[in-house]
Amino acid sequence: MSVQIIETHPFPPVLPARATVMMMGTFPPKSEKRCMEFHYPFFQNDMWRIYGLIFFEDKEYFQVPGEKRFDAERIKAFLHERGIASCPTVIKAVREQGNASDKFLKIVEPVNLTQVLQKVPNVRWLFTTGGKATEALFSLVPELKLKEPKTNEYIDFPFQGHELKLYRVPSTSRAYPLSLEKKAEAYRKFFELSGILK
To answer: pLDDT, tens digit, for every residue of 120-174?
Structure first.
């Protein structure tokens, strides 16, 4: 019987004090698959291309010129400037197949949302980047009997006195069958609705 290795999320959350929205994913790939030591570090993942398209009309805006990696410091500076937090929903997990697939990710310890929200008191919107992240947040409020939002929809998500809204955006993994442009359009709608894009 194989031993299950419990891993701890390697990156701290990005929590700008003035943040009004918080992006919540799950778990990064293993270190050998990362192009940087920061959230969404797999070069084939389209998260930072989507941000580049939406905010700068350039999918390569956050890419280091001529290299297959993104510029973590540039991304961090942008998130702080725009008031966008980024925090994983999963702190400890087991990769049941040894890969980065959410499908085979067993959650051992979800995020302590109470502590996180103390650092970003202005956050009103949480947005999840896939089903597993949504599931992790729902595990924090089993008593509410909430119904998970479909992709591109949101629900009210009351949490310990915080009147939050939970929006679900499409996964930015290449495995998710939607073009980069359509994914960017979906994220743009969220950022317009939440007031980040005026």
So the answer is: 999 999 999 888 899 999 999 988 889 999 999 999 999 999 999 999 999 998 8
Full 3-state SS string of 170-187: CCCCCCCCCCHHHHHHHH
Measured distance CA(191)–CA(125) in Å, rounded? 10
Query: What per-residue string of b and e applies to 62-71 under the rule 16 or more CB within 10 Å gives b?
Result: bbeeeeeebb
Residue 163: other Cβ atoms inside 10 A: 9
Residues 6+ apart with CB under 8 A from 63: 48, 49, 52, 69, 70, 71
Look at residues 97, 107, 163, 108 and name the one whose alpha carbon lies nearest to residue 130. Answer: 107
> CA 89, CA 159: separation in Å to the nearest integer?
15
Whether this prediction's pTM lies above 0.85 is answered by yes
Q: Which residue has the tokens 């359009």?
A: 185
Burial per residue of 24-34, b for 16 or more beta-carbon CB atoms within 10 angstroms, e otherwise = bbbbbbeeeeb
Sheet holding 6-8, edge to edge: 6-8, 90-95, 105-110
* Tokens (6 digits) for 128: 């999840």
d(CA 28, CA 37): 10
Residues 110 and 92: their CA atoms lie apart, in Å, by 7
